[in-house]
């Protein structure tokens, strides 16, 4: 499976991840069809331990769904960052993933020797506690 994302949307997510470091940031992806991310909508991370996990309030999720639907978009994915952790699903990610058909983008943010923050973003399908890589195609 491939997930197509606009370059500007990916850059927006990675910039948000750098700005939120050392905490996890999160949000939603919208597109006109499943399998594409045309828009990123940031969400508030309401987790107790924001450096290690993320949680999005159900009311914010519903508001995003209604916003997307009202503009002819579908919820096509969820994104979040992993500060100083690889861009692969954690055990918590696998346990809490609950949007069938959605792609999960994970952006790893890590320190470089120069002091700058670098990002690596990967796409995943999370189903029934298992992770399947998806090819991320930047357009």
Structural class given helices, strands, pairing? alpha/beta
Order of strands across the main sheet? 3-1-8-7-6-5-2-4
What would you call the shape? globular
Helicity level: 10-25%
> Approximately what portion of the residues adopt beta-strand conformation?
35-45%
CATH domain fold name:
Cytidine Deaminase, domain 2
Average of pLDDT? 96
Distance between the ends:
16 Å
CATH homologous superfamily title: Cytidine Deaminase, domain 2
Q: How many separate structural domains?
A: 1
| Rg, Å, rounded | 14 Å
What tags apply to this protein structure?
8-stranded mixed beta sheet; 139 residues; alpha/beta; 24% helix; 3 helices; Cytidine Deaminase, domain 2
Description of the structure:
This protein is an alpha/beta fold and 139 residues long. It has one domain (2-138): Cytidine Deaminase, domain 2. Helices cover 24% and strands 40% of the residues. Strands 3-1-8-7-6-5-2-4 form an 8-stranded mixed sheet. It is globular and about 45 Å long. It starts with a strand and ends with a strand. The mean pLDDT is 96.
């Amino acid at each position: 499976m491939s997930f197509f994302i606009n370059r500007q949307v990916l850059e927006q997510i990675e910039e948000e991840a750098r700005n939120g470091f050392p905490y996890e940031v999160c949000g939603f992806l919208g597109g006109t069809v499943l399998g594409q991310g045309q828009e990123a909508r940031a969400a508030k991370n309401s987790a107790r331990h924001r450096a290690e996990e993320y949680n999005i309030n159900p009311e914010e999720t519903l508001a995003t769904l209604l916003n997307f639907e009202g503009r002819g978009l579908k919820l096509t994915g969820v994104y979040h960052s992993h500060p100083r952790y690889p861009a692969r699903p954690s055990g918590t990610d696998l346990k809490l993933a609950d949007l069938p058909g959605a792609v999960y983008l994970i952006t790893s943010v890590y320190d470089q020797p120069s002091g700058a923050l670098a990002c690596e973003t990967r796409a995943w399908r999370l189903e029934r506690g298992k992770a399947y890589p998806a090819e991320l195609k930047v357009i």
